[in-house]
Design goal:
The protein is of the alpha+beta class. The chain has 4 domains: 240 residues, Cytochrome Bc1 Complex, Chain A, domain 1; 209 residues, Cytochrome Bc1 Complex, Chain A, domain 1 (2-Layer Sandwich); 229 residues, Metalloenzyme, LuxS/M16 peptidase-like (Cytochrome Bc1 Complex, Chain A, domain 1), CATH 3.30.830; 192 residues, Cytochrome Bc1 Complex, Chain A, domain 1 (2-Layer Sandwich). 39% of the residues lie in helices and 16% in strands. The chain is built from 32 helices and 23 strands. Helix 5 runs parallel beside helix 10. The protein is globular. Belongs to the peptidase M16 family. It holds the Pfam family Peptidase_M16.
């Protein structure tokens, strides 16, 4: 086993003054115990069932076997994250296997399996996972697709006893879930809530596309969620019949990857799945059908709250393949061809005109069709027909003329960098990805190989990718006996619109070669020159982490963490200015434009296209983010490109470019979003929640349509130029620095910048938070009448000085979340997605909050507030039990330990540490702060922060009055009442909100 990934976890444990919490690999003694308890299964190369008939190079990490009852399995050792074991069980049963009366049953069974089994009562499964350190919903989950159901369990710090308990529980819930009427009726509400919460304008568009594109095939009306009618009619006998038919060992595959002995994993599979018996013969899946000719080509619908979209689809029959090197090479050629076409479409969009975005993709859809799809977002106020014509023109040129060798080489160079990165970082590939990749391959009848073999096959495909060959590949991608086009528009379609669409997608169109990539050679030498190299004037070292803080003569600081956890990978983050904290809350801003336009505006005289040429075939990049405490440029690079990566970002700060095109495009893209910003409760929250939580603070407000419409390149430059030039700079360099001289390169790049002026400071106003009010603020959505959202938030605090309290509030919020889940979802079925979280801003001294929120039906709004306030009163009145606290803290600690095996964790936690040592102190105390949340502490925090009405907000349909769904509370929060206290029934006359 490779122990290098332990390095960070050991460091964090030392910082916390704690013994190492990550479990050692499963001991040989346990393997012997497992062997005595179960028959010894096959683990020989003779049983490589995944590789039957293929010449694909085998991934030697996997070992395969088949139990006597027909269950297949694959196991491997994997030390990332350290101590974790990832388990997946795939059942070859999805929505396509359902009969008409069973629509949604595969997904319903997935839900029911987590409720209980022959071994456990309702809800006990979740509590077992929590005691083992697995967070419900992230470490334990499942997914249902048209072709399969996959159960997922990630056990952190998997001890021998914990793994045994986890496997026993998982096997029981899959083989024999509780299917009694009471459990089914309770979970029925949850599934119906999920159906309701996922519905709405966006879902209607998606469903309409699906039904039209796959018309005539089983896939057209087999959405995994099912229908209200079929779910409402589901009975214990019906669900049991589906389970008996499809849940059987010969339809199951178990995959395990984790920090332990594969032989132990195999013996556990045999121990807990070996006695699983099937009834009758294995069922034959229904005929999914081929794409149907002779059906309408075009479909047009109207969704007023959704932006205009156009999709064009070319369908070919799906057929099973024998995976091979030659077949894999064809997949690589398809991928390169799509990248060439997409780059041209992107260039055409950047130039402005009829469409904002257009992208081509190919997919093998649910073993039903091979589909090449073209998705188009027309520019606002543009006829979708013009956008479709322009996109088809770019594609027509690709179909008529071979791509240049330079275009092909560019895409191969780009992808070779990505694949090399995967090879170099293979030891850190998480077990979750390994098991998921393997089961995805099982689903489509293909194989897996390791990153090194993938790169060899990719490179072997390159000599075959001549211009003429790639022309044939593009022509194949856009061929098909079935063509389906779809338009969603904001206005009702006029008569003849579908006939017009059908004509537009079938008639010849003139080839448009204007977007063809022109060979442009740009190097780092073309970047604007920096000043004379500076020097390092201060240095300090933190020995435990081998962390250095440096100060350059011009005042710029650096934080350097040299480690080899990610071989030859270096993360760079440059934090400058003061972010939101240094801005006035009352002055209008253009913060919302930074992510989409600042990097794209170029450097000096080099535009985005020049920068892309410079980066081709190299591990260079530049992302941008606005945070509370700073603006940030970030990138991931390697030792070969590290020097140029530093120079690239330094040049951006010193000589920013101001290309107009990205700003104009940002304006157009933002304008398209307004059509969908009120289409559902979730859309309303995405756009307006932050501004409601911080009333009057323009730093958190989304722009309105008029503000977006006024955006100009001149205004963009006027806002951002001072931000790039002012304020402190912290350069964070975390990764494998064994092959670079970071001191010299820092001095030559960031040390060469002019001394920075003081940042533009705000007025020092703390973050605002709405006053407690028992009457909810009301926002409106224009979507479905059966959808609403409700939330309640209590003000807390913020800042680094009270970071222990922040971690303790995380524990309080998780306990609150678990109780709300049990009542609102598990017991009442009123919501699929209740959640509670604590937000504690580190860069402000206040403005934090605990918030409970959920999507609900309007008639369940009152129940949500009743449960939330009941739980708050309970937490104030009675200390939590030791078991409940342990079930909360254990998964939180495991999350910390797993996260601490990556550079990203340390980089996030140590932001600002070069100037503020409190960040390092906060890192040192992360675990102990979390563990300090005793029952008495939790009760004290509840009484401190939850003893008021809180601030609440509800998002209602436009025609639903608040007074019809909400009852004014009569019991003040300061009084700790009984959890089962009677709810008030009087309805008061209430003012209506927006």
């Amino acid at each position: 086993m490779n122990f290098r990934p332990f390095r960070f976890t050991v460091s964090l444990a030392l910082l916390a003054g704690l013994p190492l919490a990550v479990a050692a690999p499963l001991a040989p003694a346990y393997a012997q115990q497992a062997a005595e308890a179960a028959p010894t299964p096959s683990l020989s190369a003779k049983d490589d069932w995944l590789y039957a008939g293929t010449d694909i190079p085998r991934d030697a990490g996997w070992q395969f076997g088949t139990l006597p009852n027909g269950l297949r399995y694959a196991v491997r050792n994997n030390g990332s994250p350290p101590g974790q074991v990832s388990i997946r069980v795939r059942i070859d049963a999805g929505s396509l296997m359902e009969r008409d009366s069973e629509r949604g049953f595969a997904h319903f069974l997935e839900h029911l399996s987590f409720r209980g089994s022959r071994l456990l009562g309702d809800g006990d499964t979740k509590r077992i996972w929590q005691r083992l350190g697995a967070a419900f919903g992230s470490d334990t989950n499942a997914s249902t697709t048209p072709t399969s159901t996959v159960y997922k369990l990630d056990l952190p710090s998997a001890t021998a006893a914990g793994l045994d308990e986890g496997m026993k529980t998982l096997a029981a819930m899959i083989e024999a879930p509780n299917l009694d009427a009471k459990t089914i009726d309770s979970e029925r509400g949850v599934v119906l809530s999920e159906l309701r919460e996922n519905a709405g304008p966006q879902a209607r568009v998606s469903d309409a596309i699906h039904e039209h594109v796959f018309a005539g095939q089983l896939l057209a009306d087999r959405v995994p969620i099912g229908t209200e009618q079929s779910l409402g009619a589901a009975t214990p006998a019906g669900l049991a019949a589906f389970h008996q038919r499809w849940y059987r060992p010969d339809t199951a595959v178990v995959a395990i990857a984790g920090d332990g002995d594969p032989a132990v994993f195999a013996r556990l599979i045999a121990k807990y799945f070996g006695d699983w018996k099937a009834t009758g013969a294995r069922p034959t899946p229904p005929d999914f059908g081929d794409p149907q000719t002779g059906l309408p080509i075009a479909k047009v619908i109207s969704e007023p709250t959704q932006p205009n979209i156009v999709t064009l689809n070319y369908l070919r029959p799906w057929r099973p393949v024998t995976d091979s090197v030659a077949y894999t090479q064809t997949l690589y050629h398809d991928f390169i061809a799509l990248r060439i076409v997409n780059r041209r479409l992107e260039q055409r969009a950047r130039a402005g005109g009829s469409y904002v975005l257009a992208q081509v993709g190919e997919d093998s859809v649910s073993r039903s069709a091979m589909v090449t799809s073209v998705n188009i977002l027309p520019a606002p106020a543009t006829d979708w027909a013009a956008a479709l014509k322009d996109v088809r023109g770019v594609i027509a040129d690709a179909l008529a003329n071979p791509p240049s060798q330079a275009e092909i080489d560019r895409e191969y160079d780009e992808m070779d960098v990505v694949m090399t990165r995967e090879v170099e970082n293979a030891q850190n590939q998480p077990g979750t990805e390994l098991v998921d990749d393997l089961l995805n391959s099982v689903d489509i009848g293909e194989t897996v190989s390791d990153p090194g073999h993938h790169r060899v096959m990719f490179r072997s495909s390159r000599p075959l990718a001549t211009p003429q060959h790639m022309l044939a590949v593009i022509q194949k991608l856009f061929s098909g006996d079935v063509v389906r086009a779809f338009v969603s528009q904001t206005t009702p379609p006029e008569p003849g619109t579908e006939a017009r669409l059908a004509k537009l997608v079938t008639e010849p169109v003139a080839a448009d070669g204007s977007a063809r990539s022109v060979a442009r050679t740009v190097t780092v030498a073309d970047l604007p020159a920096l000043g004379r190299a500076g020097r390092i004037v201060e240095r300090s070292t933190i020995p435990v982490l081998n962390l250095q803080t440096l100060k350059l003569a011009n005042g710029i600081s650096a934080l350097v963490f040299d480690n080899d956890v990610e071989p030859d990978k270096i993360r760079v983050r440059v934090r400058f200015g003061g972010g939101r904290r240094a801005m006035s809350p009352t002055e209008p801003n253009l913060l919302w434009t930074g992510d989409s336009a600042l990097v794209q505006s170029g450097i000096g005289k080099l535009d985005l296209r020049d920068l892309e040429s410079l980066m081709t075939g190299r591990l260079l990049g530049m992302g941008f983010d606005v945070t509370d405490g700073a603006f940030e440029f970030s990138a991931e690079t390697n030792s070969a490109d590290f020097a140029d990566q530093l120079r690239l970002i330094a040049a951006k700060l010193d000589h920013p470019g101001w290309d107009d095109a990205p700003v104009k495009r940002t304006r157009v893209v933002e304008l398209t979003s307004f059509d969908s910003s009120t289409g559902s409760p979730s859309a309303v929250l995405d756009r307006f929640l932050a501004s409601e939580l911080h009333p009057g603070d323009l730093r958190f407000a989304s722009p309105d349509r008029a503000q977006v419409d006024r955006l100009t390149p001149k205004a963009f430059r006027r806002f951002w130029a001072p931000k790039l030039a002012a304020g402190p700079v912290e350069v964070m360099i975390f990764g494998d620095l064994s092959k670079v001289d970071q001191d010299k390169l820092l001095a030559e790049t960031f040390g060469a910048l002019k001394p920075r002026s003081a940042p533009l400071a705000g007025d020092g106003t703390p973050l605002s938070f709405p006053k407690p009010d028992p009457v909810p603020t009301v926002l409106r959505h224009s979507g479905d009448a059966n959808q609403a959202a409700a939330m309640i938030a209590w003000k807390t605090s913020g800042g680094l000085d009270d970071i222990r309290e922040a971690r303790q509030l995380d524990v309080l919020a998780e306990i609150f979340n678990d109780r709300l889940f049990d009542r609102l979802r598990a017991a009442q079925g009123a919501s699929y997605s209740p959640s509670v979280g604590s937000n504690w801003p580190r860069d402000f001294s206040g403005g934090g909050y605990i918030m409970a929120a959920s999507l609900v039906r309007p008639q369940d709004v009152d129940a949500f507030y009743g449960y939330a306030r009941d739980i708050a009163r309970e937490l104030m009145a009675t200390p939590v039990s030791a078991d409940e606290l342990n079930r909360t803290i254990t998964p939180l600690k495991e999350m910390i330990y797993r996260a601490s095996s990556s550079n990203a964790f340390f980089m996030n936690e140590l932001e600002g540490a070069s100037s503020d040592p409190r960040n390092l102190a906060a890192l040192r105390s992360y675990v102990t702060d979390t563990e300090s949340a005793t029952p008495a502490v939790i009760q004290k925090l509840a009484r401190k922060y939850l003893a008021n009405d809180g601030w609440s907000m509800v998002v209602l349909p436009k025609d639903v009055a608040l007074s019809s769904v909400w009852t004014a509370p009569t019991q003040p929060m300061l009084v700790a009442g009984d959890a089962e206290s009677a709810r008030p029934t009087a309805v008061q006359a209430l003012p209506e909100g927006r």
